[in-house]
Amino acid sequence: MAKNYRVALLLNANMAYDRGIITGISSFVKNGAPWSLFIGEQNLFSVDDFSKWQGDGVIADFDHPEIRDAIKSRNIPVVGIASSETVANTMQDYPVVMSDNKQIINMAARFLKMRRYTHLAFCGYPNRPFNDWSANREQLLRDWCERNQCAYSQFSAKDNIDTWDSDLQCLVDWLSRLPKPVGIIAANDVRARQLSYACQQAKINIPEEVSIMGIDDDELNCTLSLPTLTSVRQGTRAMGYLTASLLQPLMDGKNLVKRHHFVQPERVIGRDSTDFFHFKDNLVRGALSLIRINQGNIKVKQILAELGCSRGAIDNKFHEELGMSLHAYLLDTQLNLALELLVDTEQTLSEIAKVVGFSSPQYLSCAIKKRWNMTPGMLREQKGVTNRELAPLIEDTEELIEQA
């Protein structure tokens, strides 16, 4: 009889980020891994629980110093989750799966730049040991702005601020001083929601004056905020699946060559907090507004009729502002929406084709295959374990096992 492995999850299932990782671990188990998972009471496996726990392997959140210390005190196979290389480097004896913060920031910054923001800002947390990931993302955005000739600002959170009212006043003061318009990337969705509230207090319009993006795509925080928050969806399910696939050979007594593993973000989930385009040309703004209102389900000829212009005139303006034709932009919008529906829903291809404005599922299938070199069925099979470019996120662990 095959052995049943007892695996502890030192994660906080009350947090959306951790729940995504746990979902990925669950997918690995559902694919046939003989595991029993332990997560503790109240969806939180405490350090005290772990000190007494007897099992075969652990998947742990290395962002917490007390968890790192507890792990070092036990001789047991462990794979860690980390939000930055700084944290991962403190646990060099363990395989670590982490968010690719550089790609997260690049994706968010490009999204705002496409809306013609020339001034970007970052809002993070005080520079404390457990906030290394926030400082890392701040530096990455600063570097991106320097490379791309964008003006840059940052919120310098004070270490001695320990109440929400004090922090809120600091945010209001900072937002009031910022040149407008500005696109702000928050360290995570919680910070983005706090920013949104601070804008309300300062009577600053979102998104006309300030556009806000979060990171994590925590549905609760993103949809409870008014306006709803745009966010970068991390590849948390892929991270969970990868950690599980790395832990299995460790529990089987094998060693892994590679220690650090980066998982790219999936995509930007656009919502109301960035629903504004700072383009100079009225035709471009009008066309983008029509595409947004119709969620991509509109024809080029309908846009031309609505705006009362020629195809050549609007294409010239689109090339000047966006570097592509109106048709290319519309197709890109439709395909990205189709991808989202394929990955996140159970709708049929025929239903998706109708939603995004394709005349037939066959035409949509051909367009998808041309864009990503995969059929719609292949994309759906990879649900939850692909990034936006659809490159494999789950590495072949056989290549990572040391040869005896």
From TrEMBL:
It comes from the Bacteria. The keyword Transcription regulation applies. Pfam families: HTH_18, PBP1_XylR, Peripla_BP_3. SMART domains: HTH_ARAC. Residues 285-382 form the HTH araC/xylS-type domain. One of its GO terms (molecular function) is transcription cis-regulatory region binding. The keyword S-adenosyl-L-methionine does not apply. Keywords: DNA-binding, Transcription, Transcription regulation. PANTHER family: LACI-RELATED TRANSCRIPTIONAL REPRESSOR, XYLOSE OPERON REGULATORY PROTEIN. This is Xylose activator XylR. The lineage of its organism: Bacteria, Pseudomonadati, Pseudomonadota, Gammaproteobacteria, Alteromonadales.
